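Now for one specimen:
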Amino acid sequence: MKYQISALVVMLVISAGICRAQSNTILEDFTPAVTNQPGQAYPQVNSQGYARFRIHAPQADSVIVSLGLGGRGGTRLVGGEDGFWTGTTEGPMDEGFHYYHLTINGALFNDPGALNYYGSTRWESGIEIPAHDEEFYALSDVPHGQLVQVYFPSKATGTVRQAFVYTPPGYEKSATTRYPVLYLQHGWGENETAWPKQGRVNLIMDNLLGGGKAQPFIIVMTYGMTNEIKWGHIGEFKIDTFQTVLTQELIPYIDSHFRTVNNRLGRAMAGLSMGGMETHMITLAKPDLFSKFALLSGGLYTPEELSGKVKPDLIFLSCGSRENPGRVKEAATKLKAAGFNAVSYVSDNTGHEFQTWRRSFYHLATLLFVNR
């Protein structure tokens, strides 16, 4: 399949702040968001998924809250005599995590009440809208794995690069047990902190393992950009250098510093959005390195492009119901008909956003390395 960059660009700018069906009455049960700075009362969310903001800007003439990847959409706040600007979203937000920022008198700012997350090529404010299924990524009373930060040398880029590595509970107690590895990539405008912070991938794994719903494996997350790309120029991204970083530098480093299953059957690659594009390109170029492929809102595989290559054990395709679920399901059906073990998953009532990818990872993790 020829990957369509233009389609990816369209997906990248889909707002993460698409509203659910509006309610006639807004319930006044607002409480501070869990993503707030310590001790900050705003922003707030209510039980219906509305978000309310309050910003102190006494000299401002205009304050707008822009929600979603890239800041599409917005809520215009109303100023008061006390210098505070307040406003509530027009409708309920989709469940899960959203990036946002403030535009005050035309200048861009982060919300001083909220924590910051790297997205849209900068540290953006973030807000979490409670979800009906949030237990699967909640901090729970289960054994917890370790999330460690490592640095590895890269001759390809002439730098020392960073990665985050999740090791499952019990890893440090055994000197002999070896674990398979998932190489998991973030989306465009994000970095290696995205999956642990926005995606809560380590907590998802802890909960799955605590419930006996997945096999233990290591997760490796690194920065996927080797040539810096400005907004709107994703077509200028080149995979060659990052492919070298991943396959010739990072994988050998991980295999030499962690107890891995150092073969194709013990290795998988997955990515969301642009990370799916990277996964697609690298797994097709290096099918001998990975046995399981997963694209989360990140394109499709076709039987034709996989023909003649080492056959993957698993192909996982997913997206949100507000994206292109028909194409994802159709692609999986065609792969199955051609003899591939293909699975599709569609996240209900979500778009190109982290709730889609959290749910997608949850389902993917239950399938990985089961029959290794």
In short: Residues 75 and 144 are 39 Å apart (CA to CA). The first strand starts at residue 31 and ends at 32. Residues 1-23 have pLDDT under 50 and may be disordered.
